[in-house]
Amino acid sequence: RGKRSGKNCVRVFDPSITADMQEWNHLKNALKCAIENNELSVAFQPQIELRSGRVVGFEALARWLSLDLGHITPERFIPIAEAAGMIDQVSQSVVAQSLNLIQQWTEEQRKALYVAINISTHQLHDATFVSRIKQQVREAGIPCHCIELEITETSIMQDIDIALTALRELSEAGFRLAIDDFGTGYCNLSYLKQMNVERLKIDSSFVRDMNASNSDGKIVQAIIALSHSLGLEVTAEGVEHPDQVELLHAMGCEQAQGYYFAKPMPAEHVQIYLDPDMSNVTPITSRKP
Ligand code: C2E
Ligand code: MG
Ligand code: MG
Ligand code: MG
Questions:
Q1: Which residues keep their CB under 5 angstroms from ion ligand 3?
Q2: Burial per residue of 48-57, b for 16 or more beta-carbon CB atoms within 10 angstroms, e otherwise
Q3: Is the confidence at residue 71, as pLDDT, over 60?
Q4: pLDDT in tens, 91-140
Q5: Nearest to 225 by CA among 55, 151, 217
Q6: Hey, which of 64, 174, 260, 276 would disulfide with 144, CB 3.0 to 4.6 Å?
Q7: Quick check: 29 pLDDT over 80?
Q8: ipTM of the complex
Q9: Which of the listed residues 61, 202, 240, 261 should we mutate to test ligand 1's pocket, taking the one with most ligand atoms within 8 A of CB?
């Protein structure tokens, strides 16, 4: 009998959907409490300039350690925060913790380093977002060039006119701009020039299995060539092996980020990566073959 239920049959009860909705609601309520109780933290992951082996920036990544539920990944809670109207609060906490970190830097470090913050679709299309983040950064006494904003292709293409206006205003305010997860979304390449971005981040899915002759390697090479022809720099995400570092460097990729260099870490550990004597990042030029 079950086999006979065709596509016109409406299923009034699907236990898996109900379970998903229950879990979603549970996480949504837990996230609301977590925000109120300041349970959200930020982990910072270094971005390395391949030419010199130096740390040039850190990506701020939201972390949620719940007393009841344990670690919950951003891939689970960011979409909930977006859908439930809580992404602003999550982001304000990430921005505030990033500004705290930058406040500990010297003048010299503020000139040379930045913190990269992920911006979600909802934020980019919120008419008040640009003025609010400008104000938050100004009130902390931090120059905007210490902050890079990472935006995905998908969120830009949601409403290209609104996105281009927001990107122009952010760029004029002095923020650095990067396109995140490049290659995985749909991006109209003709807009790339108008976007005021200075960097493309190649998605880790292309970096993971790349080698000099396979298709992922060719895609990476093509993205680097495209970026350079538009005057953009490239950061490779998800770099885990020395072979990837060598190949990316040979391909002309400027920067890399990944477990090979360092995992995302609490703010207290960041300083170690800024002290040249203690840097455990080996410059490409001095690495043995
Ligand atoms: P993303 O912005 O593309 O961040 C890079 C992700 O790759 C991070 O995952 C990072 O921990 C992970 N990663 C870095 N190096 C490696 C590596 O070598 N190997 C592997 N396997 N993974 C690596 P994470 O922290 O779980 O964040 C996932 C996504 O959640 C981020 O992807 C971003 O889209 C989103 N996200 C995180 N924090 C925020 C936030 O504050 N706001 C918004 N809107 N989204 C956020
Ligand atoms: Mg990112
Ligand atoms: Mg990414
Ligand atoms: Mg990603």
A1: 180-181, 237
A2: bbbeebbbeb
A3: yes
A4: 999 999 999 999 999 999 999 999 999 999 999 999 999 999 999 999 99
A5: 217
A6: 174
A7: yes
A8: 0.98
A9: 61
